[in-house]
Design goal:
The chain has about 240 residues and is α+β, with helices and mostly antiparallel strands. The protein is built from 2 helices and 11 strands, in the order H-E-E-E-E-E-E-E-E-E-E-E-H. The chain is globular, with a radius of gyration of 34 Å. The strands form 3 sheets. It has a 5-stranded antiparallel β-sheet, with no helix packed on it. It has a 4-stranded antiparallel β-sheet with strand order 1-2-7-4, with no helix packed on it. Strands 8-11 form a two-stranded antiparallel ribbon. It has 2 domains: about 150 residues, Uncharacterised protein YcnI-like PF07987, DUF1775 (Immunoglobulin-like, Sandwich); about 55 residues.
């Protein structure tokens, strides 16, 4: 019976590990974008991960195309790759939300490997950008992965209501969420609440300090008085013995 339980447990653990491995393999099978922030108007670090090469061939470059809603992005340095940018020039200046105008934008950023990335190794590439004011919209970053032999163009966009698993080579994406609420001083509601809590805590600490100091003073006074009483008692005892 004990052997049977052990065998069942081992088989269950093995099956679970196998399913987890399959799940991880499926999740990392394509180039993915992981943003640090998604709120409209926020600044986000969007990390693109490459989990494998092109049918066993080492990766030599990765070209990330920015969606039209994004005007610029700052690439994070990766010591194993060189960086170049592509620019799009507008025939008519683009007017921004603050009223200013721009005549061009960064349309793509390319990372080129100094040494090809082994097909069975992974790497990450991070862009810093401002999330556009497009709450509820999903932004796509078509990414061309070039290898020593062949390429994989991660550019497919799922139909409305479909997931990325419905296409062969899904484009990395970012779903824009609603902008964070702000107070009159430009701080988020969470920041305001945190500041208020901090102020209240400081006030409570200050208020509690007077009783604390008062108690400490009373304790010290009692200690001094007790010491004096002890000295008097000692002296009285010695005096009495002398007179006797």
């Amino acid at each position: 019976m004990r052997l049977s339980r052990t065998l069942k447990s081992t088989l269950a653990l093995g099956a679970t590990a196998g399913l987890m491995t399959l799940g991880l393999g499926a999740a990392s099978a394509h180039v993915e974008a992981t943003p640090s922030e998604t709120a409209a108007g926020s600044y986000s670090l969007v990390t693109f991960s490459v989990g494998h090469g092109c049918d066993g061939s080492a990766t030599t470059s990765l070209k990330i195309t920015l969606p039209q809603e994004v005007n610029s992005a700052t690439p994070t340095v990766n010591p194993n790759w060189s960086i170049s940018e592509s620019t799009e020039t507008f025939s008519t200046p683009r007017v921004l939300a603050d009223g200013s105008k721009i005549t061009h934008r960064t349309s793509a950023i390319t990372y080129t490997a100094k040494t090809p990335l082994d097909a069975h190794q992974r790497d990450t590439f991070t862009l810093s950008l401002q999330v556009p004011d497009a709450a509820g919209k999903t932004l796509y970053f078509p990414t061309l992965q070039s290898c020593e032999k062949g390429t994989t163009d991660w550019k497919d966009i799922p139909a409305a209501g479909q997931g990325e698993d419905s296409v062969k080579a899904p484009a990395p994406s970012l779903a824009v969420t609603a902008a964070a609420a702000t107070t009159g001083h430009g701080h988020g509601a969470g920041d305001a609440a945190g500041a208020a809590a901090s102020d209240q805590a400081s006030a409570d600490t200050a208020g509690a300090s007077w009783p604390a100091w008062t108690g400490l003073g009373a304790g010290l006074a009692g200690l001094v008085l007790g010491g004096l009483a002890f000295l008097r008692t000692g002296r009285t005892g010695r005096t009495g013995r002398t007179k006797a």
